[in-house]
Design brief:
The chain is α+β, with helices and mostly antiparallel strands. The protein has one domain. The chain is 23% helix and 23% strand. The chain contains 5 helices and 8 strands, in the order ααααββαββββββ. The strands form 3 sheets. It has a 3-stranded antiparallel sheet with strand order 4-3-5, with no helix packed on it. Strands 6-7-8 form a 3-stranded antiparallel sheet, covered by helices on one side. Strands 1-2 form a two-stranded antiparallel sheet. The chain is globular and about 50 Å long. Bound molecules: zinc ion. The site of zinc ion has 8 residues, from loops.
């Protein structure tokens, strides 16, 4: 088994995953397939080095292709976010399989330095909350993870382009964050004509969790 230390974080997350010796290409852990009933028998090319984006499309065709076969869910993001995407897909599949509802990913892209995952699932599905949480965790993770190398990152602005990068890969200048507001995610809905805070949480990168923060701790009402 060939492993390189640079990719050891993948191995921590997915014990069966084998990293390969060049680039950031890696093979997807077979154990990730066990919840995906759509998966075709593993083909001969699995095991060869292939781009992780293509590997995901091959492994999860029903999830990542649209009705006419286009790979609309093929991730359009940097290698540094590979682990975040794989983890999100695992959670989304788990949520969908728990209810048997059809789930399709319509897009995995970067916008304003943040990962965006678009999902098609029935609003009546009881899996919606779990899927929304999987997406929230992935987006929060992307906001503090360099999209080139996967190291801890922050938002940089160069010209009009925003990107999340580590110090080594940062382009332009870091976008300032008010003290205490690092990795804060606030979800607000309008209800009965009033804006209400639905959740106010801080993303913890070490544990990949969102932890409740009292809005008052941030100087917010409610
Ligand atoms: Zn980096």
């Amino acid at each position: 088994m060939k492993q390189i230390s640079r990719c050891s974080r993948y191995l921590n997350e997915f014990p069966g995953m084998v990293s390969v010796a060049y680039g950031m290409a890696f093979r997807i852990d077979d154990s990730l397939l066990k919840r995906d009933a759509s998966h075709e028998p593993v083909q001969a090319r699995i095991g060869q080095v292939m781009d992780w984006r293509d590997a995901l499309v091959e492994r999860y065709p029903v999830l990542l292709r649209d009705g006419s076969g286009r790979a609309v869910g093929r991730p359009g993001v940097g290698d540094g976010w590979a682990r975040i995407v794989v983890r999100a897909i695992g959670r989304i599949l788990a949520a969908g399989s728990s209810t048997g509802d059809a789930v399709r990913i319509l897009g995995i892209a970067e916008k304003y330095g943040t990962l965006r995952i678009s999902i098609d699932v029935s609003h009546r599905s009881t899996a919606v909350a779990a899927i929304e949480e999987a997406v929230a965790l992935a987006e929060a993770a992307s906001e503090c993870t360099c999209d080139i190398c996967g190291g801890e990152g922050m938002l940089y602005e160069s010209g009009n382009v925003l990107s999340t990068r580590c110090v080594a890969h940062g382009a332009g200048a870091p976008v300032p964050v008010s003290p205490g507001w690092e990795n804060i995610r606030i979800v607000r809905h309008v209800k009965a004509g009033k804006v209400r805070t639905v959740s106010c949480r801080r993303y913890d990168r070490a544990t990949d969790t969102l932890i409740d923060v009292p809005p008052s701790a941030l100087g917010l009402d409610e």
